[in-house]
Specification:
Elements lengths: L1 H17 L6 H8 L3 H7 L3 H21 L9 H18 L1 H14 L5 H7 L4 H20 L13 H18 L6 H18 L3 H14 L2
Length: 218
């Protein structure tokens, strides 16, 4: 673990000082005074370090909220809010790197929408997979608590919607220049509340149930 942290720290410092990734694993390892083989023991490439850092932001935020006893008693809506607030706090601690890394992803988009690019970015693939597992667990819990309304052909798309929401929050926070990122807090609250208002039971669901009842009993 010590070697892993040493490599990650040196990589983060390099990209922030130079505005780009190192060009050679050999030169990077030599400057770090480790064998090139030691680097490849932990990472296959510099992009793999990026992916690991993004995944770590997620896993640390998830572990932090789940370690809080009060979190276990939250509604699903409150759990997702707590996760996002905690995640953004962790991002703040390394904002310079996050802004650099996200900016690099946007530059690679070559004119396409930034969030559309991130959807497909290998740098965020591990983070995306882990987040999808987390969101599926929340949605399953929400169906049990009746906070989430199962809907044919749509329910399976909910994790994708939550992932899109995550990218929206990330993009908003990177661009946020408000004091202490207060606008990001508002964006988190409004986006999560809107999402659960949409996936929760609504008058349309009641109308559909009634129409279904009438059809079955005509």
């Amino acid at each position: 673990m010590e070697m892993l942290e040493k490599i990650r720290k040196a990589y983060t410092e390099y990209v922030l000082e130079n505005g780009k990734q190192p060009t050679s694993v050999f030169q990077f390892a030599r400057k770090l005074k480790i064998a090139e083989a030691d680097f490849y023991t932990h990472y296959t490439s510099f992009d793999a370090i990026d992916a690991d850092i993004w995944l770590t932001f997620f896993t640390e935020a998830k572990a932090t909220v789940e370690a809080d006893e009060t979190y276990q008693g939250y509604s699903v809506r409150e759990k997702l809010l707590a996760f996002y607030y905690t995640w953004v706090e962790l991002l703040k601690a390394q904002r310079s790197f996050v802004v650099y890394s996200y900016g690099r992803l946007k530059a690679e988009a070559k004119g396409s929408g930034s969030r559309g690019l991130v959807q497909k970015s290998p740098a965020l693939s591990a983070f995306k997979d882990a987040f999808f597992d987390y969101s599926r667990d929340l949605l399953a819990e929400g169906r049990e608590s009746k906070e989430v309304e199962p809907r044919p052909f749509i329910t399976d798309r909910y994790p994708n919607a939550f992932w899109g929401q995550t990218l929206y929050i990330l993009d908003f926070w990177v661009r946020d220049v408000s004091k202490n990122f207060e606008k990001t807090d508002s964006a988190i609250e409004k986006s999560v509340n809107t999402a659960f208002d949409l996936i929760g039971r609504s008058p349309l669901d009641t109308l559909f149930d009634f129409a279904k009842f009438m059809y079955q009993n005509k």
